[in-house]
Design brief:
By secondary structure, this protein is of the alpha+beta class. The chain contains 17 helices and 16 strands. The strands form four sheets. Strands 1, 2, 3, 4, 5, 6 and 7 form a seven-stranded antiparallel β-sheet that branches. The chain has a five-stranded mixed β-sheet with strand order 10-12-13-15-14, covered by helices on one side. α11 packs antiparallel against α12 and α12 packs across α17. The longest helix has about 70 residues. It is rod-shaped. About 25% of the residues are buried.
Length: about 600
Amino acid sequence: MKKFRKLIDNFLSSGLKFGPYNPMYNRIRLLNGAALAGVIFLFIFGIINISGEKAVVGIIELIIAIILLFSMAIIRITGKITFTTAILSIVLMLMTMLFVTGGGFAGTAVFWVFSFPGILLFLNGVRGGLIWMIVLFVIIFVLGFLHDVNLITLAYATNIRIVFLISLAFASVFIFVYQKNQEKSYKIMNNQKKELEKSAFALRGAKDSLEKLYEISEKQKSKLNIILQSIGDGVFVLDQDKEIILVNPITTIISGFSENELLGIKYDEKLKFLLEKERTENKGFINKAYETGEISTIQKKTILIRKDGTEVPVGDSASPIKDRSGNTIGCVVVFRDLTHERGIEKMKDEFISLASHQLKTPLAGSKYLLELLFDTDITKLTDEQKEFMQGIDKTNKNMIEMVEDLLNVSRIEAGRKFLINRKPVDLCSIINEVIKEQDPLISKKKINLILPEHSNLCDLFVDPDKIKHVFNNLISNAAKYSNQGGTVELKYEKKGDRLVISVRDEGLGIPKDQQDKIFSKLFRANNAISSEIEGTGLGLYIVKYIIDSHKGKIWFESEEGKGTTFFVELPIKDTSTSENKPKNKVEVS
C-alpha cells in the first residue's frame, strides 16, 4: 500500500519545479491528478457510449481524453504550466457543452460538480479561476437560453440544469474560500521562508565574519606570542585586578619562578620589587600606571627578589592597557636585569674616582708651584711671562674644579656618603666671596651685577662650603651665558621658615624642548654648545644633589634668547632629624 501511495505521489509531483511553499505546487499536483482521472473516466464513458446509442458523444470523449494525455505530455516535456492549464480549461468548457447538450451527467454528476470549479480555480488561481468559472456559467446559461427559444435541444430539463448550476455554485464558493485561504497561507509561509532565508544569509555572513575575525585574531595572537617570546627583557601582563595573565620566558629566567607558578596570582605574591636602600616594597611604578593611565618608570636602585632569595637589580617601566573608552583595564610591565650594567657602572665610577684622585695630587702640586712663581719676592717675571703664568694658573684651577666635580659625581653615583656639615652661616658673606672669585669673569664681560642689601634674611643653617659651591656655579653660569654688558640680578625672599634666592640673567636662555634635561649628568643645551662656552655638564647635576641634601628645592624659568632665572629654596632652621649624630652634621648617601 505504501509503495502504491508513493507511486501515485511521484506521478502527481512529476514535472514540478516548485516546493511546497509555492502555490503552484498543489495546482500542478491537481493538474496531474485531474488529467489522469479525466483520461480514465473519458476512456471508460467513451467506450460505453460508442458501444451504445451515443457513438458521437463517445468519440468526442475519446478525443478529449487524448487531448488530456497530450497536455500531460506537454507539461512534462516543456514545463509550460500556463499553456497546459489553458488547454485543460478549454477542454472543460468543451466537456460542459457536450454533457449539457448530449447528456452524460447521469452517473458522474457529483464528480463534475466538484472537478469543474476545483480544476479551474486551482489551476488558474483565484483571479483567473473566477474568470473561467464565469465563462462556464455563461455557457450553461446561453445553452439554456438557446434551448428555451427552440434553437437547440438539450439532453436535460431546466430543473436538472438549475440543480446542477446551484450545486456547481456551492462547490465553487467552497473551493474558492479554500483556495483563497491556501494562497494566504502560502503567502505567509513564503514570507516566513524569505525571512528565514534572510536570517540564514545573515547568520552565514556573521559566521563567515566571525571565522575571519577568529582567523585574524589567531594570527595576531600568534604574532604577539612570537614577539613576546623573542623579547630580550622580562615582560608580564596584569589584568584589572593586578593578576598575572601572561608572562614571557625571560620573566621566568630572571625571577626563577615558572610560568605556572606566576599565572593567575597577584603579581606581588611572587614578584617582589624592593627599593634597594630602604628595603621597602616598590609598588609605586605599577600603581602609578593604573592610577594615571601613563607610562611609569621603575625607580633607580630597585631590586627583584628571586625565588631562591637572591637579589637582581632591575629597571624599565610599566605601561597601562586601556579600553576604547580610555579606562585602564590592565598593565604591561617590562623589566630587565641590570647586573651587567651595574658592574660596568661600578667599574666606570671606580675608574673616575681613582683617576680623579690620581690627578688631584699633581694638580695640587702644580698649584703650589704656580703660587711660588707668582711670589715676586722669589721670582722676577716679565709682563709677558706673568700673562703666560696666569693662563697656566687658570687652566690649573679649571682642572682642579673639574676633578673635584668628577669626584663629587663619583660619590653621588656610587652611593657613598656625602657629608653635609650644617651650621649657622651668613649667606650674604658667602655670596660676596663667590662674587669676589668670579670678579675676573664679571669684569671681563662688563656684567651689571645687582645684589640685594645685606639683611637678617641672610642667616641660614646650611653647609657653607656646599652652598658656596651652589652659588659659585649659578653665578658663574649667569655670567658666562650672558651677553657682553648684560645684567645679572640676585634676590632674596622669605617664605615662612624658608628662604628663596633667585639668580637672573639676560643671556642665552634654555631651549624649551631641552629644559627637562637641564639637571641631568653631562647634559648641555645645544645653544650652549654652539656658543663654544666652556662647561662640563656636571655643575647643575651636583648643585641639585646638594640642594636636595639640604631638604631644599631648585627650579628655573627660562625663555630662549631672553635669559634664565634659577630659584633656590633653603630652610632657615635646622631640619636634621638624626638622633644618633650631632645636629649640625648629616651624612647623605
